[in-house]
């Protein structure tokens, strides 16, 4: 009975040792991946540092445009309201009459 108890304890310790070894290898792999990710984050941060002033300028310009949109919308509403009351007319014709294009003849097109 003592022999079986000692054998069970040895098997339990060997199982725990294997589990700890496996867990250590997983944690080592995770640590290596985190180091690689940290390097990638440093590179991204360096690239983003060059872009930040331009993004701030774009944001300022976007705020100016966004603040002007209600005013532009009001102008557009007045233009549309004024345009709907004007009578419809045909397309504008030049005072000198229509001109004949020679480009059609160069490609073999003849108008009738």
UniProtKB/TrEMBL annotation:
Task: Map out region (Disordered) in residue numbers.
Answer: 84-112
Record bears the keyword Transmembrane helix: yes
What are the entry keywords? Membrane, Transmembrane, Transmembrane helix
Q: Where are the transmembrane segments?
A: 6-27
Give me the stretches of Basic and acidic residues compositional bias. Answer: 103-112
Superkingdom of this entry's organism? Bacteria
From the Swiss-Prot or TrEMBL record, give the protein name: DUF948 domain-containing protein
Tell me the organism.
Actinophytocola oryzae
């Amino acid at each position: 009975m003592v022999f079986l108890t000692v054998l069970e304890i040895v098997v339990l310790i060997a199982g725990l040792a294997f589990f700890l070894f496996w867990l250590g290898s997983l944690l080592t792999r995770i640590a290596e991946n985190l180091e690689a990710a940290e390097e990638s984050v440093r590179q991204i941060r360096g690239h983003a540092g060059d872009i930040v002033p331009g993004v701030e300028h774009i944001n300022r310009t976007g705020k100016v445009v966004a603040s002007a949109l209600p005013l532009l919308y009001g102008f557009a509403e007045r233009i549309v309201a004024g345009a709907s009351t004007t009578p419809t007319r045909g397309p504008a014709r030049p005072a000198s009459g229509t001109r004949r294009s020679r480009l059609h003849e160069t490609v073999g097109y003849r108008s009738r």
